[in-house]
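Recall the central idea of this unit: under ordinary conditions, the amino acid sequence of a chain determines the structure it adopts. In this exercise we apply that idea directly, starting from the sequence alone.
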Amino acid sequence: MALPKTQLAPRNDQAMTRDFCILAISIDGGTPALAAQSLNRYIDVGEIRALPSVFPSSTAPSHASFATGAHPSQHGVVGNRFWEDEGIDQIAAVQAQPLAGIRPYSLDCLLARSWALEASLSGRRVAAIHFPQTVAFHSRPVGSFPAVYCLYASPREMPFDGTGRVRTVRVQMFNLELEFRVDSVSSGRVVVHYGSLAATADERDIICLNYGRHRLSVQAQHDRTRNVLVLGKAVLETYDHPRSAMRAVSAYAPSLPIRRYSGATASFTEAPSVEWTERTALRAMQSLRPHVLLVRYVQTDHVQETLHGDSWNDDLAVRSKATHGIAETYDLVAASAARLIRHWYGEYSLLFSDHGIDTITHYLRPNAVLQALGLSDRLIFSGDSNCGYLYGCLRPEDLGRIDSALRRSSKNAMRLVGPNELSGGLAVPRLSPRTGCAQVISDRHTELLYEPGPAFQVAHGASHGYDPRESAMNGFVTASQYIPELEDIAALGRWCRGLVLGEKP
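Accordingly, the structure predicted from this sequence is:
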């Protein structure tokens, strides 16, 4: 016998106060078609509408628009990566590190006021789980609320040094200098040290290290045959402050359990997991009783970016496996979201996504172009998937050379935009240190990369960040109560502000 679907509009007999309560769930990268397909299995959602994103149509800018009700031209989050006062040497040195790109996801990077922060300042209880612009990484604004945000680093292998019974490996992870030690003769237990702190792997080889406002979780195993330390995907939980109430409700290491989906050309490992997201949100409901709860599932975005290329492969078996992996991830998220809605005590539940997804066929590395031109000593590109910002000392004669070289290198549609020429209608700041001295905007099927490598390369995957006026960049929205026609995700943020703060949307 099939279980009844979760009602998106919950019973209100458990409403805790007269204050309006809202549960907002972001399903990152969820497309209208795939979201409808999965959500309708578990939730009586009603109409699922397309929701246009902003430019760049990426996670940080679009969530910032939801958080503030404004566009990047007002809130200042111009991409998943941007710089402001840093020199090019500093950018080059740190832009590949996991923590280097955290600023766009920070509460204190917003140039416009977050309505969740306003709700907290007005006395309403607010909590957030892995939701952008809810944890302040550089300062703690007045009114900050319990929140946790996760960062992750890729798996790696490290050879041991030393010849004694205790073997050591020193690893830099999230800008931390960690020492892993193993007694390879007796117990074989892995121990990690950071300053005066130490933690030992449990029977599942998972290490959790608590320090300050952070908790690091990493899988660590000693491969005795090759004498290497095998580190799985590491996850760093960052809280709004060291004694955050959210630390108490964060249920267990976000790296547990991990699911891995393998395609013909790539694999996807979720982090943080669906289970961690759900359990932390449920505990937040129980112990914090928030009026506003913000939750984000990231798995849908990551699995599409990884397996989408295989989903249109000519080989039927490859295509079927990838399509199944994507659908299974959507179903896991939909079922989890249904359970959150089922336990929500408030008047309003909202499901939405920040952007869509589209195929990519090529990579372009604009910094390789700069290097070939002999300009990398004073200029560097960094930015988003389809919009890269040029930082450094730009001379008038440089623009034409760089533009021509980019067009030759890309073999696809590409344009270099000067500081006063950003395309109309995209609502990006025209004169801001965050957008650099020029911008390169790629075509919809070319993704910009900023690590070392060839200037132009064939790709086989998916990405986002392109013009939000393209339907492929649309997210979706559905809610438990009436919601008007919305022009974009910024309008959704303004609607939520009105609901929570009692203002006219």
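The chain has twelve helices and 27 strands.
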